[in-house]
Structures are given as C-alpha cells and as structure tokens.
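haha ok so turns out i had the wrong file open the whole time. this is the CORRECT one, sorry everyone. sequence first:
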Amino acid sequence: QVQLVESGGGLVQPGGSLRLSCAASGSDSSIRTMNWYRQAPGNQRELVAAITRDHTTNYADSVKGRFTISRDNAKNTVYLQMNSLKPEDTGVYYCYCNVKASGRWYDYWGQGTQVTVSS
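then structure:
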C-alpha cells in the first residue's frame, strides 16, 4: 500500500507564496499521475494541478500562471509552488496518485494540508 504525506501548508498573506510537498512511500511500482486537489468548507473538491511521469502538466484555470507543479521521480515526490496567493486559494490541499500493480490501477490520497490566505 502506498502512503502519501503532504507538508508545507500554513498561513500566508495575500500575494504571498507557499510550496507544498507530497512524498509517496510503500511501493516499488511506478507512479503514473500525481495530482493536487483542494477543498474549501462548503465547496466540492477540485483539481488544482496534475503531472504525469514524463512531466506533462495540467492546471485549473483559476491557478494558471500562479501555481507550478513538478515532480522528482527518483524521490517519488510531487511539489506545488504557489505564488501570488489569493484568499480564494484557501482550503485543504490533498495529494493524489495512481499506481498500476498486478494489472490493476489503484488510487491513493494523502491526509491533506491546510492552506490559509488571509490578511
């Protein structure tokens, strides 16, 4: 079983920056996609950014130009650099990955890390 552990959340002022990290452990299988989601109270969970093993990326329209997703395959770690943060970026950020093992795809989620953008 794969375990995902997020870190890097915190409280920042509007316009500030944070860098989130998510480390995967517990499996020797290759991880295909690693994504970041977020969820604010009363809102649905939304996809923020995604990155494949070959570093192809995709972003939500609301974060394009401000957030950058990257990954280190050797470390099985995905990062989310968040710049020019806005209050509407506030929420719990969750790391996600999918792994193929024994001919099946498996989904894994981290516990989440809180990001609060407030003056």
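The chain has a mean pLDDT of 94.
again sry for the mixup
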